[in-house]
Write a structure and sequence with these properties.
This protein has 400 residues and is of the alpha/beta class. 40% of the residues lie in helices and 15% in strands.
Length: 400
Amino acid sequence: MSSNRPDPRPAMGLRPVINVSGTMTHLGASIIVPEAIEAMARISPEFVEMGALHKAAGAVVARLCGTEAGTVTACVSAGITLGVAACMTGADPGRIEQLPDTSGMRNEVVIQAGHMVNYGHPLEQGIRLAGAVVRPVGQVTRCRRSQLEHAITERTAAAVYVVSHHTVQYGQLPLGQFAEICHERGVPVIVDAASEYDLRRFHAEGGDLVLYSGHKFIGGPTSGLVAGRLDLVRAVYLQNFGIGRGMKVGKETIVGLTAALEAWEARDHAGIRARETGHLQLWQQRLKGVPGVRSELIPDPTQNPLDRLRLHVEPATAGITAWDLAAALAAGEPPVIVRDHQVEGGFFDMDPCNLHPGEAESVAASLLAILRRAQAQQVPATDLSARRAAHEESLLHWPH
């Protein structure tokens, strides 16, 4: 922690985590920019007309994303549900109040099987929440044009396309082709681009509604942006008077996100990349020559403008497995949380985008200390499956 930033976590019984996992919701997503924090504090004691506030924020979303219209949702998951609802109901008040009963409506949603991921909950559950029926297309590792064409029928209301490192990164239809097929048949395309940096690319490639997290790269409070066609964005907003009521966003969120978006325009993106590159170089230099550890820079799989450091761990030489090294980092002082969702492959990634000053050095020191101990003691490998099962079991006993 920097000396001029007091840490409220210990007083709340929370661990002072260092995040090298990335823009992960389970860690609080990202660092909120000062402009958003200040804007939220200023609006908190004031009353506003929420419809007018939504309209003003939507104009900023549309301008930044280069679309006809925009609106703010509670998060991207909410945006998927409301986007699907919008494609089924349009601006019809009766249909909006009828949901999740979809009688008399087109209610099927097509999605490539390789895009049916889980990043907190099953993505398809967000579709079903609107009352829609999920229709998977293709197989997990292969989706062909003919399969999508066959899946679209007179019952199809929308298509969902997911841009994420979690999806299968091969054998899938690219967005441009996916959208072309859907548009030829009058089906709108909803793009989940939650953790993406480029606010214009996916609309240009054919997305009719494009969803971004406001609380990831943008650096706003927990929120979602919906940008796209005027008629569909209007129908998304109108879900606030139907199933969207339970997903509503407050004035502080809307104002904070608007301020974060405006700060995004003025942000020194090149300077941020240079700082992150410095963190990666520091880690590589400190780990050079450590037995059993090999590092490499990995470009972001969805073309975000950033690299991550991948640490390959050879247990016989390093004296520890990749998953036990990740667990030791998480249990340390300070706790360091890495990007460990592929540790059974013998590696994990380290993301530099959410570090406070001085934390990159702390990460390097923790890594080296654990690896030195492992070299001397040869840490017995734990059972990764048992570790994951124990975590799932602990969730069932929350909050104990």
